[in-house]
Amino acid sequence: MSATNAEPKEFYPLVTNILKLQYCSGFFDLTEIVMFDWFVVKAKAFKYKQFYYSRRRISEEIRVKEDRLTTIIARFHDLSFIGIEIKGMPRQHYFTVDLAKVIELIPQIFQFTENSKLSPEYSKLLAYFSKLLAESSTQKKYNKEAYKEGIQGQLREEENMVGDGSPTGDFPFSDGEELNTPKDFCALVIDRANQATERKRLEAQQKAERKAQKEAELVEQAKQRKVDSLIRLLNNTYASRVNMHKEGKTKGERVKSITKLSFLKRNKDALYELAKEYGDEEIENSFIAYIDEFLKEDIEVRKLIPYFLARKPETRDFDTFHTYLNKFIAEYSYEKS
């Protein structure tokens, strides 16, 4: 076929939706996407009036099992973009589609922005839905001036007079918003969509902050457990060494009493930093050599724990700890059993 006789490229909204637009997977899954598009097509086919379709027939058309269909239809009804009326004998389900509600949900259904810019496909989609809404409004004999003035009560009265079971939902924009042209309509939806994008960004930021706070709390809890464990170890070691040194004393000699060791916050922080580099056994062995010298009165220390955990200002090394760890390695030995 020659270029001159070639038919103009047509816009097929549903094909564009599936192939070129990104749905929000967190809002609709694949079967819900297919079902959503099916309802939009049927609404147009039935001229936005109430229509009957058996679930068996829907299942055959879109290849979704009937039990899954029941779940999807219930969710769509909860979202208020389809209405369901059960009537007739036998009892049958009749559907209506509220396009105004569909448009309100568009920012949640589609991921339509990329780098804060509207994709061409989404612009087409907005124009398509605005056209559908205009057709729907004409079909239901909505008053154009009522749209401009936002007289929603009047709209409800007109809707209630329509005998086709059409939904009576409010138009999803405020009274002062003008909808003279599809361009105006698209601008409003884009504005709403940008607001939704910003809201999602803030929600993601808040979620990240909550996660970071939770992780920080878990780290702090782990730190507290580790420090508490080491404090118990050092207190038990101190008590056992005091008892051991008492055994070598004669009556009348002064002996140390067993007291609970005092740890300030900075001591706990230093102990935790030490535990990052050395194991419990190394800390215990260094403390044994340190306490033994203290109990034998070979050294005079006013504050046991601060001195043991003292660090050199220049290097931040645990000088006392290293001294007594080396002493333990060099001087403490045991017979091999």
Description:
Keywords: Coiled coil. This protein is mainly alpha-helical and 337 residues long. About 16% of the residues have low confidence. The protein contains 13 helices and seven strands. 61% of the residues lie in helices and 7% in strands. The radius of gyration is 38 Å and the shape is rod-shaped. The strands form three sheets. The protein has a three-stranded antiparallel beta sheet with strand order 2-4-3.
SSE map:
Layout: H1 13-20, E1 22-23, H2 30-45, E2 51-52, H3 55-62, H4 66-78, E3 82-87, E4 92-97, H5 99-109, E5 110-111, E6 113-114, E7 117-118, H6 120-139, H7 144-149, H8 152-161, H9 182-247, H10 265-277, H11 280-295, H12 304-308, H13 319-331
Antiparallel strand pairs: 1-5, 2-4, 3-4, 6-7
Coiled coil: 194-225
Keywords: Coiled coil
**Helices and strands, in N-to-C order?**
HEHEHHEEHEEEHHHHHHHH
Low-confidence runs of at least 5 consecutive residues: 10-21, 140-152, 154-182
Structural class: mainly alpha
Shape: rod-shaped
Strand order of the largest sheet: 2-4-3
| Most strands sheet | 3 strands, antiparallel
**Per DSSP, what share of the residues sits in E-state strands of 2 or more residues?**
5-15%
The number of distinct helices, counting runs of at least 4 residues, comes to 13
Mean pLDDT: 75
How many strands in all? 7
The helix fraction, in percent, is: 55-70%
The Cα radius of gyration reads 38 Å
Distance between the termini: 99 Å
Number of domains: 2
